[in-house]
Amino acid sequence: MEQEEIFGPVLTVTTFETMEEAIAIANGTPYGLVTGIWTRDLHRALTVAAEVKAGQVRINGYSAEGSAHLPFGGFKRSGFGREQGMEAIAAYTQVKNVMINYG
């Protein structure tokens, strides 16, 4: 199996044998802002992305680019809530359901 790299909190200096072990190491930290995954296997990357507790997951790239339309924020001690995007607007709104029966 070709070696793949999964970078997240502390994984940049940690070795691991399996994808499950890498996920456990990443999720075992108190932080979860951004995780980077380098692989040619998109299915594996999406599996890791779904399992890792991080606010952002970058596949085959790791930089700070983004836009105002992309929500930004972390998990655990890396923050609560989201900045930017529709998720940030939701923090300033309250949902109300109004139903009208005309019959």
Description:
This protein has a single domain, classed as 3-Layer(aba) Sandwich (Aldehyde Dehydrogenase, Chain A, domain 2). It has 3 helices and 5 strands, in the order βαββαββα. The strands form 2 sheets. A 3-stranded mixed beta sheet has the order 1-3-4, covered by helices on one side. The chain has a two-stranded antiparallel ribbon with strand order 2-5. β3, α2 and β4 form a beta-alpha-beta unit. The model has no long low-confidence stretch (mean pLDDT 75).
In percent, how much strand structure appears in the residues?
15-25%
CATH topology: Aldehyde Dehydrogenase, Chain A, domain 2
Order of helices and strands: EHEEHEEH
Strand order of the largest sheet: 1-3-4
Helix percent reads 10-25%
Per CATH, which architecture? 3-Layer(aba) Sandwich
Class derived from helix and strand content: alpha+beta
Q: Any idea of the CATH class?
A: Alpha Beta
Q: How many structural domains can be distinguished in the coordinates?
A: 1
Whole-number mean pLDDT: 75
Q: Write down the Rg.
A: 18 Å
Question: What descriptive keywords fit this protein?
Answer:
103 residues, alpha+beta, three-stranded mixed beta sheet, two-stranded antiparallel sheet
What is the gist of this entry?
Helices cover 24% and strands 16% of the residues.
What does the secondary structure layout of this molecule look like, with pairings?
Blueprint: E1 5-7, H1 19-27, E2 31-32, E3 34-38, H2 42-51, E4 56-59, E5 75-76, H3 85-90
Parallel strand pairs: 3-4
Antiparallel strand pairs: 1-3, 2-5
